[in-house]
Design goal:
Blueprint: H1 5-50, H2 60-75, H3 99-115, H4 121-150
């Protein structure tokens, strides 16, 4: 039996209402998980350092990271995106890089500067220049995304 036009219009509304509620529950669960992981990761990291043998740290920290990764998949915080109409699913604005890559780049920069004799005014200027370039690239990407939506 087919749905009436009114029933077809109401169904997406109920899906949205459900998705709003589910996201709130997931955000609370994710926040509680993070609240637990902050001290647990510090303790696991310290235990791993203490249990170092022959230059090889204990596995506790990385076991905890693995559990955190599994819980991240289980929570599936943004799973409601599967219900979004295709025209509202935004293209990724972050490119291919993730937070780990960004941290690695900053770490490499700091280590290089330290090996050159410390962080200097020149290093600050280079960092400011790099940040300005990142901001310009982000604005350009946003403008391109905006003009693509107009087409």
């Amino acid at each position: 039996m087919g749905l009436t036009q009114r029933e077809q219009q109401q169904a997406p509304l109920w899906v949205l209402i459900r998705d709003i509620g589910v996201l709130q529950v997931k955000l609370i669960i994710d926040g509680l998980r993070d609240l637990i992981l902050v001290p647990a990761s510090l303790i696991a990291g310290i235990v791993s350092l203490v249990r170092t043998e022959g230059g090889k740290p204990g596995p506790e920290f990385y076991v905890l990271v693995g559990v955190g990764k599994q819980s991240e998949g289980w929570i599936n915080l943004f799973g409601a995106l599967r219900n979004a109409p295709p025209e509202v699913v935004p293209p990724p604005h972050f490119g291919e890089a993730d937070m780990d890559e960004l941290i690695s780049r900053v770490e490499n920069f700091v280590v290089d500067e330290y090996q050159r004799g410390g962080v200097t005014a020149q290093a600050k200027a280079r960092l400011d220049k790099a940040l300005a370039a990142m901001h310009r690239r982000r604005r350009r990407q946003q403008q391109e995304d905006g003009s693509a939506g107009d087409a």
